[in-house]
Description:
Elements: E1 16-19, E2 26-27, H1 29-43, H2 49-52, H3 60-64, H4 73-87, E3 93-94, H5 98-107, E4 111-115, H6 120-130, E5 136-138, H7 146-152, E6 157-160, H8 163-172, E7 175-179, H9 186-191, E8 196-198, H10 204-214
Parallel strand pairs: 1-4, 1-6, 4-5, 6-7, 7-8
Antiparallel strand pairs: 2-3
Amino acid sequence: MSPQPSSSPHSAPTLTVGFDLDMTLIDSRPGIHAVYRALAERTGAYIDADLAITRLGPPLEEEMANWFPAEQVPAMADVYRELYPTHAITRTLAMAGARDAVAAVQAAGGRAIVVTAKWEPNAKLHLKHLGIDADAVIGNLWAEQKAAALREHGASVYVGDHVGDIRGARSAGTLAVSVATGPCSAQELTGAGADVVLRDLTEFPAWLTDHLAAA
Length: 215
């Protein structure tokens, strides 16, 4: 999808805020846990699902490499994605404040986009199921790879829960807003260069109001 242009050369650019998905907008841990259990049952492989869900953020293939030989990882990732809609979507919850955060951007006349490492079709299923109305969804991008989508859509802010999200924001030249709801602590996020660290997305609408007023 193409970014929405500003109305004229003299008008302010359209506000675009990017959001990560897992552990930023959605708590996918119960769903992903179920998928790993189903994958272990399907393949007979040992997978510690309890451990795997503490490391959400990086691409699926990085986690798969802990449980399968390298030559099997691509095929097992495909099986995982095949199992995902059945086992993960209905078990996944919206994070506190997720819908209000997206709505706050749109109420300010902006666009809220999702840029995630998750396989894009499954990311869209989550958002549809949970009623989170993003203006665009771009999947299969991790860390610095996210910068291309953020620049394409003209994002000025990127919100995530992982140090990899900060790297993506930095690479895109956007403000890095972090929420301490994922595997990285507030201290880790600050140390990685976050411009803003919020407890969770319930604090985002007030922060956005202040940010726009200051701008």
